[in-house]
Amino acid sequence: MRLWMMLGALAVAVPALPAEITRNKNRGRGSMWWGIAKAGEPNNLLPMSPASPHMDPAVYATLRRKQRRLARENPGVLMAVARGANQAIMECQHQFRNRRWNCSTKNFLRGKNLFGKIVDRGCRETAFIYAVTSAAVTHSVARACSEGSIQSCSCDYTHQSRAPSGARDWEWGGCSDNIGYGFKFSREFVDTGERGRNLREKMNLHNNEAGRAHVSSEMRQECKCHGMSGSCTVKTCWMRLPNFRVVGDNLKDRFDGASRVMVSNSDRVRSNSNAIMSNSASNSVHGHREGLARRHRYNFQLKPYNPDHKPPGLKDLVYLEPSPPFCDKNPKLGILGTHGRQCNDTSIGVDGCDLMCCGRGYRTQEVIVVERCACTFHWCCEVKCQLCRTKKTIHTCL
Amino acid sequence: MDDDIDTIAFYDDEEEMCENGCNNEGYTDDNDFEYDYDLYSDGGSETIPRLIHYCLKPTLYDAASYMVPLLVASLAFKIFAQSQFTPCRIFHGISAITGLYVVQHYVPECLHLIIILIAATYISLYIPEKYYKGIKAFLPSILVIFYCELWMKPAEWHKVRSVIMVAAMKAVSVAMDNIYIEKRPNLWEYSGYMLCASTCLFGPWISFKDYVALYHRNHWTAWWALATIGNLLISFVFLSISNCWTQWMLSANAGKWLVAYRDALAFRASHYFISYTASGILLLGGHPVSLTTITKPFQIELPHSLVQVVVCWNIPMHFWLKTYIFRPSVMHLGKFGAVIVTYLTSSLLHGLNFQLAAVLLSLGFYTYVEFQLRSILANTFDACIASKRCSDRKCSHARTVSNCWWVTVTNLGFSALSVFHLAYLGLAFDTSELQETGYSYAHTMDKWSQLGFASHWVALATYCAYFLIR
Fold this sequence. Notes:
The complex is a heterodimer of chains A (398) and B (470).
Chain A: H1 2-22, H2 57-62, H3 65-73, H4 77-95, E1 105-106, H5 124-147, H6 179-190, H7 199-218, E2 221-226, E3 234-239, H8 244-256, E4 259-262, H9 275-279, H10 292-296, E5 303-304, E6 318-319, E7 342-343, H11 353-356, E8 362-378, E9 382-397
Parallel strand pairs in A: 4-6
Antiparallel strand pairs in A: 2-3, 4-5, 7-9, 8-9
Helix pairs in contact in A: 4-5, 4-8, 5-6, 5-7, 5-8, 6-7, 7-8
Chain B: H1 2-21, H2 23-26, E1 33-34, H3 44-81, H4 88-106, H5 111-125, H6 139-151, H7 154-181, H8 187-195, H9 208-212, H10 222-249, H11 256-284, H12 297-301, H13 306-313, H14 315-349, H15 354-381, H16 405-426, H17 441-450, H18 454-469
Helix pairs in contact in B: 3-4, 3-10, 4-8, 5-7, 6-7, 10-11, 11-16, 14-15, 15-18
């Protein structure tokens, strides 16, 4: 019965496809760089010389011309991008480990999209992929700047000038993550293919921006007072450790509350989209291309599909069409289906066997798992573990 | 836009190529996909570099650059004031000038207050003794503290409190000495003592006698340099513990008592940082090594008793309280009264802050109960379980750590109780917004009610036990 319903759903979905395919050339063009994550060890990607002779040709082929130019002009940046891409994949797979769609990636590159054809659809999952990859590149590049592994950027010193009141404010000459550079670079690199000419490109742009906004709002500074008996004579500050996991968690929340959008008639100017840029832009990604046209492409406002909902904000994820069913294998959409996936027989959530297996039922088997156990800490700083064999009951979907 | 056109051409080609080449086989083969479950790790290996990058480096860099002017001023005091060729008045003059520079540089808010305090207390030294004795010696200092408490901005007062506190302690000690010993310093000596560069910012209190002894105390040794650097290094280790390592060791969801212990540990480490910095600066300013033990971290982290913690927390301050408050008042008020007066004075010096007063008075009550209970137990069982550690050779008790196992167990039990009390009392000093303005009544109560006022109940139970067996 369910199967028939599913086929029905597919039959409804299929007529929409030809129209998509006509635009397919524009699709995914800005997202081919994701493949960089799978292109061998990051070490191979770090070009020591400005021209990048060491770059794996397979990787190089996935980049657009402009992206290649960015990589050439900013030596060392590709390694940061690759690290970011890997981070994004890990985060995506962590966030979606218990869902029917589990953010699977292709094992190797054949010039096709890393996350598979799901990206061709403008659904929630795609929105998350775009946001998390853009966020990860911002995060990773910002950090690489302060580590000094990108030649064209350095630490962010703008924290020094933030002294709103009085002389007692923290002034730090130290090196903090160059979120301004990461933000700019991500816009240049990640948003290359998306010119915002059609709705899908606007969706991608919006989600990329959302990912970046989540990263830049997570950077914070924390302070502690020191002084005789609890007074505050000395104040020392540091940057709060920005964990990409927090960004991932926030994005997952936005995924759950993503808004469906449609074309808006008026291209209103979004007030706060450039606000993040303005406060710290110490190093420019590249000098000669800071045209007004470029900035203009972020000035659009998407309209909610349901007119009663409020328009999506800067940090919200947006999507265009409902997600396809992820239950059964669908090669056309690159969906693997949930056959053979593990599930939790006691959970009533999406990871529970009922929902995960889409009512097909599941198989229960006992397996012997080798795990690390009885870990002890040895001074200093090593954790030694034993290998234990334990019996585990696992449930897999039929 | 020219290269965008190129790009499109390039990409369209590739798109074509791929449409033919890899479309069909792309998604038919399951092996094409991998589930990167085990790829994900918690980033454990990355935490330490991240900690270094985000916390240790900024913290230490920040603190070091903060210290530089103070270190320079102290060193200048040692070089110029304590040289063999400096006349006595110049010595005190240099001391006052370097001190004024330090105050002006670090806490300009209270420069005028310090000067007023010095002037007022100095004038009061010349008031005939029959109008001015006993508790009246405190009046100028208390008035200044009241003024700060009531009319200064909370953030400013909280910042300069320790400076005023040290100055007030110095003023009171001179006034009391003046009454009992009849030796009055001249204005040079007095302002030099009150403003001395190496003690005016972080303290500790040093006696007037020790200050005067610095004159012509000109010695430079390698050992002195090593001890100075060592103290400063230790202070930085404690700073890194306070800011970074405690947060790294225990995350916020580790259980409320562990978090309480962590926050209290961060507060204590912050105190050790300040104390060791003060020691280093004392040494740099030419003070003798015997003066520079301010705190004993090990005695506090692994306490024998709460009494020991209170004694070792700030040794110069303890000495000051004992000499100028406890001993004079014990004659009039008895032991319990003297303890309470001592803790009241201490909280008055710390400003009229509810949290500090609550913590200090709790400590006063706890230490009194602990001391009494343990001395009764020690006498009854004739065992070394009193609050003061028995020295090994001449212990008056029959049962000692070496010949009786339950003496060790009891002492360990009391140690654990002390650690528990310290975690509870210290956790209120957290890194919330209030740290800059002083913690409020609501904040303290909120923190403690989260733990169910457990420590106060335990202390009350201990008191009941003491009351019953008394």
